[in-house]
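Sample pair:
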Amino acid sequence: MMINKQLAESYKWGNDCDSWIFCNSKNLSIKLESMPANSSENKHLHTQKEQFFFVLQGTASFFLEGKFSKLKKSEGIFVEANKPHFIQNESQEPLDFLVITSPNIESDRMDLPLEI
């Protein structure tokens, strides 16, 4: 089945961020996410999920392994299970990225205090 942003199920998250679900099977989740300027998600980890984040537009500040990395268009980062992380958009431009998650397990997110 062909999928695109207009046909995909979508929802809001965080501080006015958007998500479009391109794949939602038992073993795989693929989402297009968009974060407005100066937005951030909460620091968290997943106990079983692995994730790959890939920037399509903008610049992401990504916290992983106790430090920040800047990811630009066409750059990505892999996050193993049990690794605290979060993504934020510190720029004045929108940030669009893909999030690929495996396995696709509900209730596998644990929010953490922001101390960095």
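The CA atoms of residues 23 and 36 lie 23 Å apart.
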